[in-house]
Each structure stands twice: as C-alpha cells, then as structure tokens.
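User: Quick sanity check before I run a bigger batch. Here is a single chain. Can you write out its predicted 3D structure?
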Amino acid sequence: MAVGGWFRNPERFRRVDFLPPFAIDGLSIVVHTDNTSSASAGAFFITAFSTTVWFFIVGLVCVFTFLKMLDRRFVPPDESYQPLPRTSSRVRRMKHYLLKSRIPYRLRKALQSTLSRMVGQGGYDPIEGKTSSRQWVLNLLIALCSLFLILTYEAAMT
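Assistant: Done. Predicted structure follows.
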C-alpha cells in the first residue's frame, strides 16, 4: 500500500488516496472515484470511469471487433454449415444459425479475441496460414489501448 491520507477539501470529502483504491473505514469501504461523484461502498471499477468513458471503451471494442472480423484470414469460413430442416423448432434453428453460421460465428470469435486482449490476456486467434501481419498490428494496437485503459483506471483511483 502506498502512503495516503484524508483530504480536507470539501469537494473530496471522505475520499482517500490509498493504493489499492479503497480503504476500510469502520464497516464500509470508502472508494475514491473522481471529483464529480461521491465516494460509495459500491463496485469501484464501475464508478471509476464516467459514462462518456464507458461509451468510448464500448466503442473501441466494437471498432476492434469489426476490424478483426473484416480480415478474411481471421476465422476462415467453414463451408460445412448446413441449415437445420424446417421440421426442427424455431428456437433450435436460430441457435444453430447463431452458433454455426459464418457471419455470427466470425463476429463471436472476433468479439472473444478483442475482449480477451482488452483485459490483457493473449488468447488464441484462429488465423488461416498462422501468419497475418494485419492481425499482428491490430493485436498490438488493442494491447496498447488496453495498457492505456489500465493506466487510466489506476490514475482515476489515486
């Protein structure tokens, strides 16, 4: 833990500057968030960023997922997909389409890859031919954004 202390500033009343970003205060956990929201005993990860920043993070994930999905070498198309016959239930056919069809499958794999890289996990990218410089550059960009996201989170907490 780093050395911290209580602030006397009325804007930062009952906030602490400890690392990790919480301190036990009696029976509740006091969380330092930012100057616009009050400290609370809630989940500090959710309250660390403003709504605008959360929209920006979701937007980054969507953009990276879309860029991964556009690369033809990422998750090569599986030509073995066959729709279920009409005698199957509608829910079963929809589930089969979402799990096995080419576009939803590529979207799901791209989203899994992007989210795993955004939280700092390497993960396995199913790339045809095992070499794709575009995917390598995109993964590097995602890793850099992830690093800045983690550093921003730490800065918001201290």
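The beta strands are 22-25, 28-31.

User: Great, the batch can go ahead then.
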